[in-house]
Design a protein that fits this description.
Blueprint (H helix, E strand, L loop, with lengths): L5 H13 L12 E7 L3 H12 L1 H6 L3 E7 H6 L11 E4 L7 H14 L4 E6 L9 H4 L5 E4 L1 E3 L9 E2 L3 H10 L5 E2 L11 E3 L10 H4 L10 E4 L8 H15 L6 E2 L6 H9 L1 E5 L9 H9 L2 E5 L4 E3 L11 E3 L6 H10 L1 H20 L2 H5 L1 H7 L15
Helix pairs in contact: 7-9, 11-13
């Protein structure tokens, strides 16, 4: 696999974010794709697969990638202002109002009048909160995880998400009813991209062999608790339930450096991963590369790539109220062969996704909607800047 390797990604982040380095497009006839990036590791994981496959994308469909931090774009004077750009992919933080986001996309349209635009939604929740705001401007809306049943997007929730809806009811919290409007035809623009497995700190593990390390701990569950009220109560309940399982060797409290955290995961038989602000968490994939069985609230409603949420094949689901967590943990501690088989399948699923370059196939609809032409694969007109 020819790709941008993690140390080069680290160097690129340092040059781009710290030094403000901007590399102009070359004079080649390739399609020019500019990534306008938000400044956070979570945001960057959504960009990395494109840069990881930079050489392959250059060959087919024939694109040249460049990156520009969002702050640098807003400041103006960037090196791309006088260059032809065919596609602009935009990330933002999730605190923009709809009007602020529309204004930003109008600035992109003004700066790159011939380009098609994609919006990169890297957010943890599964909702499509900016669908209405971006619909008139973008040809693609890229998301890391989506509802398997698209009909769920038409439902109102207490609070912003399906998780706030469930847990506010569970804890008796009074949250306002919310419904994000989804424009007609918007799902034709929705493309599912890969999740956390492309993080630079994970790739070296997944591209290696399944770990056969000794397991000194039964359950790994370092769970941060502090946050909004519903989040704090959800995470505290998860911590209380797992700490209430007697007679197991448990790692649960406090923060440790990432290197120590990984050592613990490699030494754990099971990783318990409750929900965060969204369903999919870093530790879901970290458990997979560490060879720990992932136990997690049921994920049947989520679609993600690569799919490590196949019940009893790549992870083990429990009820959202965690009423069966202790029973599940004890079963898989007593059945090592089943535990290891599921953990290995999760590892192999991600490894195969990477080695088979499945990302390139998954992104074919993305490029069909963005590269020059007047319609998408279904014959629908695409918005141009």
């Amino acid at each position: 696999m020819r790709a941008l390797i993690p140390w080069r990604w680290t160097a690129e982040r340092w040059l781009t974010d710290r030094l403000g380095y901007q590399r102009r497009f070359s004079s080649s006839p390739l399609h020019r794709v500019l990534l306008i990036s938000a400044p956070n590791e979570l945001c960057h994981t959504q960009l990395y697969p494109f840069l990881f496959h930079r050489k392959a994308l250059r060959q087919a469909p024939g694109i040249e990638l460049r990156e520009l931090p969002l702050a640098a774009f807003r400041a103006g004077g960037h090196v791309f202002a006088r260059q032809r750009v065919d596609v602009v992919c935009v990330q933002t933080w999730f605190d923009l109002s709809d009007d602020e986001l529309r204004q930003l996309l109008e600035q992109v349209r003004t700066a790159f009048p011939e380009a098609r635009i994609a919006y990169f939604d890297w957010f943890a929740p599964t909702d499509l909160r900016y669908a209405q705001a971006v619909d008139d401007s973008v040809a693609v809306y890229l998301k890391k995880q989506v509802f398997r049943d698209r009909g769920a997007y038409s439902q109102s929730t207490r609070g912003d998400t399906n998780l706030t809806d469930y847990f506010s009811c569970r804890y008796g919290l009074d949250l306002p009813e919310t419904r994000f409007s989804i424009p007609a035809g918007f799902f034709r623009k929705l493309v599912l991209g890969p999740n956390f497995c492309f993080s630079a700190h994970m790739l070296p593990y997944f591209l290696g062999d399944f770990p056969e390390s000794p397991k000194a701990f039964d359950v790994h569950a370092r769970i941060a608790v502090k946050g909004t009220e519903w989040y704090t109560r959800m995470r505290q309940e998860a911590l209380d339930v797992v700490e209430g399982i007697s007679g197991v060797r448990l790692v649960s409290r406090g923060r440790v450096p990432r290197s120590e955290y990984f050592k613990e995961l490699f030494a754990s038989k099971i990783c318990f991963s409750p929900f965060g602000y969204g369903e999919v968490c870093w530790r879901d994939y970290e458990a997979a590369f560490a060879g720990a069985l992932l136990i997690k609230p049921n994920m049947d409603h989520i679609e993600s790539r690569p799919d490590i949420f196949q019940a009893h094949r790549t992870y083990v689901p429990v009820q959202w109220d965690l009423s069966d967590l202790e029973e599940t943990v004890r079963y898989y501690l007593d059945h090592a062969d089943e535990r290891i088989e599921i953990a290995r399948c999760a590892f192999d699923t991600v490894k195969a996704y990477l080695e088979q370059n499945a990302f390139l196939d998954d992104m074919k609809p993305f490029w069909e909607r963005l590269l020059p032409g007047d319609t998408d694969a279904g014959g629908q007109s695409l918005p141009r800047s």
